[in-house]
Amino acid sequence: MTMKETTTDVDSANKLRKIVHVDMDAFYASVEQRDDPGLRGKPVVVAWRGNRSVVCAASYEARQFGVRSAMPAVRAERLCPNAIFIPPDFARYKAASSAVREIFRRYTDLVEPLSLDEAYLDVTENKLDVPTATRVAKAIREHIREEIELTASAGVAPNKFLAKVASDWRKPDGLFVIQPAEVMEFLLPLPVGRIPGVGKVTESRLKQIGVNTVGELRTLDLALLEDQFGRYGRRLYELARGIDHNPVVPNRPTQSISAEDTFERDLPLSETDALIRRLAEKVWLVSRKETRVARTVVLKLKTSDFNIITRSHTPIGPPATCDELTAIALSLRERVKAEPGHRFRLVGVGLSNFRDAEGLPALFD
Known about the structure:
The chain is 35% helix and 21% strand.
C-alpha cells in the first residue's frame, strides 16, 4: 500500500512509539494441526460436542464454512458437517504460548499479553538494536514459524489501537505496517465496526446517527459522542483521530473477565436462562487462558429503562467447572427481585477477584 505524507493528530499524541501487535493464527486449531499431521488441511473445530458447548477455535478450513469462535458447537456442526471436533487441551496451548512469549522477550521486556494467542510489544527500543519495528516483527514471525512451527500475523503502528487493527489486515500469516504519516489515509475509510471494542450494538447505534466509517465518526464533536455513548464517547472521539495514549503494560494482572449481550427485544427475567448459560460458557473458556484463579462470580442485568442490577457471590472455593460457574450465575438471577411486567435488555456474566492459584486453599488434596 502506497500512501502520501499527511499531517495527522497522531504524530504528537503518540511521541513516535513503535508498537507491534502479534496475533497467532487460529491458535488452538493450529496447535492441533501441528501436533497431528493427519489434521492438516482439514476443517478442525476445537470444542466439546453438545448443545451447551461453544467453539473455542476453528481452523481456516472450517472458517470457510462460516464457523467462528464463540459460536454454539451445534451450529458449527450444521455449517460444517465434515468438521473434526477436538476437545480443547489448554495445557498444550499454554505451553505453546509460553514458547512464543520467550521469543518476544528476546527483543523487549515490554510485552503485554492479552490472552494465550495475542500480545502487544513496545519496541521503541529493542534489546538487539534492530533498526526498525518492521524488522523486529518480521524476525519474530520467522522465529515462531521455525522454532514453534506455527504462524502469526503482526501489525506495526505508532500505538496499540492501530497496531491491533493492522495485525488483522493480512491474516493469516501476514504483516501490515502503518507509518505515522499514513494514519489518516488508512483510518478514515475504515468501517466503524473495525474499531476494536465497537460491537454490533454500538455499530448499529452509530449507523442510526449516520456514521458508517471512521471518517464520518471524525466529523462528530466530543459533546455529541459523550451524550450518545457516555465515557466511551471520548474514546471514540480519540480513536477516530488515531489517538491512543495507552502504554504497553507488562505483567498486567487480570482483574476481571466478563461477557454480555443485548437482547433483540426486551425479555422477562424468566427467559434469560439460555443466554446466561451461553455467556457463562464463553467466560469459562476465556478464564482457562489465565494462570490466576477467579474467586467471585458476577451477574449483571440492565432493565428496559437502563437501570443496572448486579449480584455477586464468592464461594468457599473458586468454580472448578463450567457447570459450576453456570449454576452460580443462575442462582444469582434468583436473587433479583423483578416485578411482574419488568423487562430486561441486557445480561452479563463475569468472573472477578483473581488470585494466584498457589495462594488458594487446597480443598481437594
